[in-house]
């Protein structure tokens, strides 16, 4: 019976974690599942509680920081970006007119659908633009020439 109580507690903590996404409650859920294992092996309640406390604490101290570190973007962690992260910040050549609704650019030899980051801007074929953000398969672009662009979107207030 003790094992069932620990499993229910573990499931409740795991479900609660879905709503918080802090990687805090799930560590206690892991402790509850470990305590359920101890209960299934016939350990007394005091040992089950000790297993719960030790596994939860170790999860918080050892596992959670590792998971959070791997969850950061490459730019945040100082590593070499790849995939979509590598595209953000790169320059692109406009192939078809880019406005707030549609467009086509070439980024590192690949064709990407594009939209203007600033919805009031329009970029004509042949212009160089900078990729500010990627949403799905669409690059949001901004004029690349800083001297004629005025200010970059990050500095707009």
- Please tell me how large the radius of gyration is: 25 Å
As a percent range, the share of helical residues equals: 40-55%
Anisotropy-based shape: rod-shaped
Number of strands: 5
Instruction: Report the total helices.
Output: 6
Major sheet: size, sense and barrel closure? 5 strands, mixed, barrel
What distance separates the N and C termini?
A: 59 Å
Structural class: alpha+beta
- SSE ordering: HHHHHEEEEEH
- Write down the overall mean pLDDT: 84
Q: How big a fraction of the residues is strand? A: 15-25%
Membrane topology: Multi-pass membrane protein
Organism: Micromonospora tarensis
Keywords: Membrane, Transmembrane, Transmembrane helix
Subcellular location: Membrane
Describe this protein's structure.
- This protein has helices spanning 2-20, 25-40, 45-71, 74-77, 84-87, 146-149; strands spanning 91-96, 104-107, 110-116, 128-135, 138-143.
- The protein has 157 residues and is an alpha+beta fold.
- It has a five-stranded mixed beta barrel with strand order 1-2-3-5-4.
- Strand 1 and strand 2 (104-107) form a beta hairpin.
- Residues 146-157 have low confidence and may be disordered.
- It is found in: Membrane.
- Keywords: Membrane, Transmembrane, Transmembrane helix.
What's a concise summary of this model?
The protein has 157 residues and is an alpha+beta fold. The chain is built from six helices and five strands. Strand 1 (91-96) and strand 2 form a beta hairpin.
